[in-house]
């Protein structure tokens, strides 16, 4: 198959990003939007409402509501998947989430399959406190799906190692295709002062943004504790925590107990349309993850908006940031290291990368049309 030929794909996702945010869902929705530009036809199935089909012109269908009981979701995923496969219109199936691919795994013998590995689902659940039995069941589901893949796409070398080590996937089947960025959307042309005024943020305070789901592995506890140290050197520091999650109340108590109410603001869930403005409003963004960070789309979003980003040396985060500016990769994810790096950049002891340099790096290497072309190349390999 040549680049001039159309490649017809069935794309099996998780939830639809327009209804439930998250890194996997964002990558899935953006990839489906840009693959046609690489001459890849897409048809998608996700857990979602009837509004998914309405909003995508029927390109993506919700087979069952995301909050429906699990047995119903699995049954409806099987019915919808088999219905699509029986049409015989697809050259290839692309799986983005093992749970909703498992119901049709028996039918994948007849259609070449590529697995998009967005992270170790079972391991992530274990880190967040799920029972070991539940994690083992999830891992078994993943293995059953992954063994069907003719090629497996990972977002980072860190996740390639996870896939080979944890799931015993042959290394020669794994291909690296990073996540992408919509460089036009993440390009707020307002000045930093204008964006802060629009958001109601303090105009003249050194401001750091953390866009994170508020769960334990994201390192937000360490960021809060580090703020106490930074405040000694940067008295007006303001940390903006964007996102929600199960430990949101616990983090609020931590902020209050430390007397940091005037230095850390919990924004809650920030609407997707407002994210570019939020990135642009910050002097610096930070990703203090403690475990299992496969790629970190938010790093690209921040850079595309012209805002430097500081990351912990976890998972795929250093792979994205180190080629741009190694100073922006923390030595470790500890409270003291976070505090020292923030203090150094915010006091000017270390000069932040320029806004223009941030954006140029993101656009050149990670614009979605570039990523879509690389994805098609892997799909073509799977058809040989």
UniProtKB/TrEMBL annotation:
Domain Glycosyltransferase subfamily 4-like N-terminal: 22-185
Pfam hit, one: Glyco_transf_4
Residue span, Glycosyl transferase family domain: 192-351
Keywords attached to this entry: Transferase
Claim: Transferase is one of the keywords in the record: yes
GO MF, one example: glycosyltransferase activity
Gene Ontology process terms (BP): lipopolysaccharide biosynthetic process
Name this polypeptide is given: Glycosyltransferase family 1 protein
Upper classification of the organism: Bacteria, Pseudomonadati, Acidobacteriota, Terriglobia, Terriglobales
């Amino acid at each position: 198959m040549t680049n001039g030929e159309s490649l017809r794909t069935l794309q099996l996702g998780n939830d639809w990003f327009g209804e439930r945010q998250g890194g996997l869902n964002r990558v899935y929705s953006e990839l489906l939007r840009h693959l046609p530009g690489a001459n890849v036809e897409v048809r998608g199935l996700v857990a979602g409402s009837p509004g998914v089909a309405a909003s995508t012109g029927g390109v993506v269908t919700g087979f069952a509501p995301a909050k429906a009981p699990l047995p119903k979701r699995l049954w409806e995923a099987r019915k919808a998947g088999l219905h699509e496969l029986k049409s015989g219109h697809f050259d290839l199936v692309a799986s983005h989430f093992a749970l909703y691919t498992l119901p049709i795994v028996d039918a994948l013998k007849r259609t070449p399959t590529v697995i998009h590995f967005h992270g170790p689902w079972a391991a992530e659940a274990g880190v967040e406190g799920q029972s070991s039995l539940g994690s083992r069941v999830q891992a078994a589901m993943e293995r059953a799906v992954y063994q069907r893949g003719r090629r497996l796409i990972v977002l980072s070398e860190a996740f390639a190692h996870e896939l080979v080590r944890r799931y015993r996937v042959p290394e020669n089947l794994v291909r690296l295709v990073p996540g992408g960025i919509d460089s036009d959307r993440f390009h707020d042309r307002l000045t930093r002062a204008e964006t802060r005024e629009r958001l109601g943020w303090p105009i003249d305070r050194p401001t750091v943004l953390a866009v994170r789901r508020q769960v334990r592995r994201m390192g937000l506890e360490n960021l809060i504790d580090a703020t106490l140290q930074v405040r000694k050197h940067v008295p007006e520091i303001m940390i903006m925590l964007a996102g929600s999650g199960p430990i949101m109340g616990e983090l609020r108590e931590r902020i209050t107990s430390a007397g940091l109410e005037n230095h850390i603001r919990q924004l809650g869930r920030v609407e997707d349309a407002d994210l570019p403005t939020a990135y642009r409003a910050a002097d610096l963004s930070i990703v203090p993850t403690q475990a299992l960070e496969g790629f970190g789309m938010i790093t690209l979003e921040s850079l595309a908006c012209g805002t430097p980003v500081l990351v912990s040396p976890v998972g795929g985060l250093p792979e994205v940031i180190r080629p741009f500016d190694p100073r922006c990769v923390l030595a470790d994810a500890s409270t003291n290291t976070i505090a020292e790096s923030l203090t150094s950049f915010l006091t000017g002891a270390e000069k932040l990368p320029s806004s223009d340099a941030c954006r140029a790096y993101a656009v050149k290497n990670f614009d979605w049309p570039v990523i879509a072309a690389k994805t098609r190349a892997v799909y073509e390999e799977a058809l040989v």
